Structure formats: structure tokens, C-alpha cells
Amino acid sequence: VFNTSMTGYQETLSDLSYCGQIVVMTYPLIGNYGINRDDFESLNPAIFGFIVKKACKEPNNFRSVNNLDSFLKSKGIAGIEKIDTRAITKKIREIGTIKAIMSDSLKDKDNIIKKLKNSPYANNQVKTVSTQKAYPIPNGGKKVVLIDYGAKLGIIRELSKRNCNLIVVPYNTSADEILNLNPDGIMLSNGPGNPKDIPESIETIKKLIGKLPIFGICLGHQIISLACGADTIKLKFGHRGGNHPVKDLETNKVAITSQNHSYAVKIESLSKTNLILTHISLNDKSCEGIKHKKYPVFSVQYHPESNPGPEDSKYLFDNFINLMNNNKRTKNA
Known about the structure:
Glucose Oxidase, domain 1; 2 domains; single chain; Rossmann fold; 26% strand; 10 helices; four-stranded parallel beta sheet
């Protein structure tokens, strides 16, 4: 897959939504501000490989503690440079996302190609990257259950900034277990792969809709849509980068967004559901956001927490807090 961001490579490398993928960076120079201690989106990256035109060997930034090459080696991530990344990107754009393999030699090219052809496509990467145990991130505000499909730390940071008392739970936590925690709201995180690979999560959300306010991001958005009867499709080459324009159909405002996904909700399938289309991509007119007609449930395909990327859409976290406040007032009325 390819990513069009000029910066934010550290967040890209540590984003668990890239589980099992080889990422091609279209911008020609990567690594010029190094690796720092603050900008990770996970502690254990799941990306398979990283391809750049040129990797900066001597970064210059006051926060830098490492360079790109050393970081990749320390995490066991395959990396390669001096590659025409834009030529690869054009090929992906023309034929779609493809299986790939990285090798430092062409001596055994036939066996390498055979190995690639015989390798299966990964499925249910969520099981690999989700937390195995529930854990709290205490605070004094609203109690929010964050269902971890491969959650970025940026989502946790934004909720924590708003004083949310978080409980992070595994992707396969049941609806009853979640309700027994007595939360004020539920957050569905981003994550890798096809949402249809985790039918148990879809069934869980079916049971939770109408019970509590729910906010979904990326994979969480797709799971909400499937739980409400909509369908998802695989995009030819996906959306990955920090420069994707999205239009809010309710306000007619345009936001520049950070995105990372291969699948999208099929707009035509929304007509048979209780969901309303709220946001569209201005690049390909695909679905970028929905909300429920009756219940306090909404979601977006893009990343409002950014990390990396523009911060145009962080207000959506405030909207989630308002939904929880309004829901509590309605219950107490």
C-alpha cells in the first residue's frame, strides 16, 4: 500500500492498522526529523515493511533520540531505500493493492515469486493487535469503554484530555460484559483488515446500539455500519495519508483529514438501514461518516485524532462528550 503523507512516518510505522502491510511512502525523503519518544501510536509496531526513496541518516530535531534505520532494526521491521517509490505507487494505483515480498537478492527469483504467490492473504489481524486483557486508564470524567481493535494512542490521548475514565477491552468482549461495566459511552477504535473477519464484534455492537452513546472511528465505523445492516466494499487501493478532503453534508464544511483504510461503507446499502450519510470523500465520493436516525450513535471513516495529520476534526470527540451528557440528562428526566 502507499501513503501520501510528507511527515508523520513515526506514527505511520506504529499505527496498528498497518498490521502485516508493506508501506510505500510517496514523499522522497523520510526520516529527516528522526524518531522521538512522544509520537508513537503503539509500543509494538505491527507493520511488515517500509519502503522509501531516501532515508535520512543524520536527523536534526531537538526531540530526536534515534534515526529511522536504527529504529527499524530495533523493531525487526524490514526496510529498503533507493527505490522509485512513485513508480511503485503508480502501479498500485493502476492495478490496486497487491501482495508483495521484500528480498535483498534476486539470485533465487523464481522461488521468491513462487513463495509470494503461495502465501495467503492475512485475515483477522485484529486478533493479533487487540489487547488480550481489559485495563483501566483512570480519570474523573465520563466512564468510556474503548473496544480495542488496534487502537491508536492518539484516540486514548484525546479521550483522556477530556477527562474520560477509560476502560480498554479486547475486541471480542461481549455486550453483557461491557454493560456490566456501567459506562456512559462506548468508543470503537480503528484497526486493521476486513471488518467482516470479526463477525463476533458486529454481533456485539448490534446488541449495544440503543443502549448507550457510541462513537466509531475507521474500523469501528465499518463495524457500526455492518451492525445496522449496511454493507462494506474493498477499495481499489484505499485511502492513506494526511491530506484527504472530506465534506460534512450537514454543515457543508470541508475538513482535511488523516486516513488509513482499505475498506469503505457502501453508500447504496445505507438506504435499507436507520443510518444517515453525514460525510463524503471529495476525492472519490465514498462514505466518510454516518449517524443513526434514532439513537446517539455516529462514526467516521477518517481519523479525527490525526496523529499524524491535520486537526480539523478533533471537535468530534467533544460531540461524543455532549452525546453522553445529553443521554444522562434524558435518563434522569
